[in-house]
Specification:
Length: about 160
């Protein structure tokens, strides 16, 4: 396992790579192991995202977890830059309760790249498990949504 890091406007982000796949994004991480081509490309794409030069990541990703967890992550990955959906939308698409979808979103191991910040509750922002750079989870979600120009009526 290798961890590569990059400084971003939301703090130092770390990408965990194993067997050529990005497995996790960490907040305030320190580098570990060797800097692989996948980690360099991940850092480059994160920089491009924050510089408004990239709207969709193209990296080899692997989500550890159940088939349901991977299905929710696949759905989130397909949400376009600057757009949002609700937990209920994903629940309908996966034919599961919205609470299960919320739990799967909260367990997303690769936030930002798999954009769980683009998933809102029916009545507001919902939650967000990522925190870093001095921001709590909800502040981080708002920061990412503002970066993308999404959910303007809510934030």
């Amino acid at each position: 396992m290798n961890i590569g890091t990059t400084e971003t406007p939301i703090g130092r982000l770390g990408l965990v790579e194993k067997d050529g796949m990005i497995m996790q994004l960490l907040w305030n991480a320190d580098p570990v192991g060797e800097e692989t081509a996948v980690l360099r490309e991940g850092a480059r794409q994160l920089q491009a995202y924050f510089n408004h030069e990239l709207t969709k990541f193209d990296l080899p990703l692997w989500v550890e977890g159940s088939n349901f967890q991977r299905a929710v992550c696949d759905y989130m990955f397909a949400i376009p830059f600057g757009e949002t959906v609700t937990y209920g939308d994903i629940a309908k698409a996966t034919e599961t309760p919205a609470q299960a979808v919320g739990n799967a979103c909260g367990a997303n191991p690769i936030p930002v790249i798999i954009p769980c910040h683009r998933v809102l509750s029916a009545t507001g922002l919902g939650g967000f498990s990522g925190a870093g750079g001095g921001l709590n989870g909800i502040e981080m979600k708002v920061t990412l949504l503002k970066h993308e120009g999404a959910a303007g009526l809510l934030i």
